[in-house]
Amino acid sequence: FLKKEAKAVGVEEVNRKYVYLTAGSCGACRFGQYHQSYELALRNSGLDAFRMFLLAQDQLDQKAAMGDGLDLNLPVTLGCLWAIFCTDLVQDLEYQVRPYEVVPGQTEAAVKESIELLYQAFRDRPRHGPWRSVLWFLTTGYFVRVMKRVRTKFDAIEVDRLRVRPTVKITGEFYLQTVEGDPNYNIHRWLETEGAEVYPAGITVWMDYLLRLGLQRFEDYAGIERGARLKLGLGRAVQAVYRATFHRLRRAMGDLPRELPHQLELRRLAAPYFHSRLDGGEGDMLVGKAIWAHQKKKAHMICELSPYSCMPNTMSIGAMAGVIGKYPDLLYAPLEIKGDAEVHALSRCQMILTEAKKRAQREFDEARAASGLTLEQVRGYLDAHPEMKRATYRVPHLGCAGQAANLVRHVGQRARR
User: Measured between alpha carbons, how far is 90 from 97 in angstroms, rounded to an integer?
Assistant: First the structure.
């Protein structure tokens, strides 16, 4: 894109008009080397003076030699935060619906329309000063109305939730677990083509973890550092507002997207295996999420994605050996993602996925037996209640990891009334 623009309007105009913002920091891995590759590509493209800014967890590096050009003020920051809330919710619903759609392609169309709707909503939102923006974002019903409109985009999709599919929870290094494409072997779409339902990793969960991580320092210094208890209380209030905002938008979508796991619960679950003060990468959260998903019947299988030479993920995988010793029935597939190992990684995942499919089928058979209904009777009930075949119909979680098993138990409960 930049090379094409440079030919069209000139290098100086491109340098003046555009900046490139990318994540960057000095982590316990090769993360700090990424921007060097980008700089090399820019130099080779004749764009030596092009401005590239690195956004870390705690600061924005704008490089004084290149000049600034990006004003991350409070309204922009809040807009980015609310955009993450909204897109996480859309993505979660997308992955819940697509494996069960009756007409292929309907989910893709609904997602495309939803993202366009969100783009217009954020572009056209009212503009306020810094402090009025805080008040407006926290009190407005603007985004609630937008998310209700997003929900209607999925309302026309007919689904067949009686397709028995194992649910696979994606965890791992932040970038690899959230990206959808070649950097992680297209693992999300690959799992779907192999007959699984993907439980994607939301950015919202990671940001909630960062809040918890910051508050842990005040926990440690309470009674030692002046004002630590006050800061801890204020921080927990901020975290409560953060979570309440997410769940408010989730309610606007009919509580269809999955809820946020509570950070203190994840810390408690991980504590015997991973110290909560080891804070590289996602810290103890990878272990906590795996146990949480297993105990709460949120997934049949955990797939953890690790980049080559990522120390925090290597530690997490080591800690998971202890978890597997305590929970031998937890299906866990740690995959190292690197350029020459795609076949090996996917083959390993496929072996564990085969066992997950067997468990999903066994869970479905047990649910059907408990309901006292045959498969034909369940289908007949759904045909008589077509609203239950809509993508926006909420099937309650009734102790099963798979949608098919939960649906059969739900139909059994309704049929007995």
Answer: 11
The residues, any chain, with a CB within 8 Å of residue 339's CB and separated by 6 or more, are none
Within 10 Å of residue 321's Cβ, how many Cβ atoms? 11
Cα dihedral 355, 306, 313, 350 in deg (nearest 10): 10
Is 37's pLDDT higher than 60?
Answer: yes
* Cβ neighbours around 324 below 10 Å, total: 13
- 243-256 residue pLDDT tens: 999 999 999 999 99
Q: Which residue, 215, 209, 81, 98, is CA-closest to 158?
A: 98
Instruction: Give the integer Cα–Cα distance in Å for 46 and 299.
Output: 49
Mean pLDDT of 218-223: 90
Q: Quick one: average pLDDT of 387-403?
A: 97
Of 73, 83, 70, 74, the residue nearest 18 (C-alpha): 70
Q: How far apart are CA 274 and CA 268, in angstroms?
A: 10
Task: Answer yes or no: are the C-beta atoms of 100 and 139 closer than 8 Å.
Answer: no
Sheet with 51-55: strands ordered across: 19-23, 51-55, 60-61
pLDDT, tens only, 169-195: 999 988 889 999 988 999 999 999 999
- pLDDT at position 391: 98
Query: 3-state DSSP call for residue 74?
Result: helix
Non-local CB neighbours of 119 within 8 Å, separated by 6+ positions: none
Question: Within 13 Å and on the Cβ side, how many CA atoms surround 2?
Answer: 22
What is the rounded average pLDDT of the residues 71-97? 94
The whole-model pTM stands at 0.91
- Which helix or strand (DSSP H or E) is residue 63 part of? none
The CA-to-CA distance between both ends of the chain, in Å, stands at 60
Q: How far apart are CA 111 and CA 114, in angstroms?
A: 5
Residue range 68-89: mean pLDDT, rounded: 89
Q: What is the mean pLDDT of residues 302-316?
A: 86
Cα distances from 249 to residues 252, 279, 344, 364, in angstroms, run 5, 29, 40, 31
User: Could you give the 3-state DSSP secondary structure of residue 345?
Assistant: helix
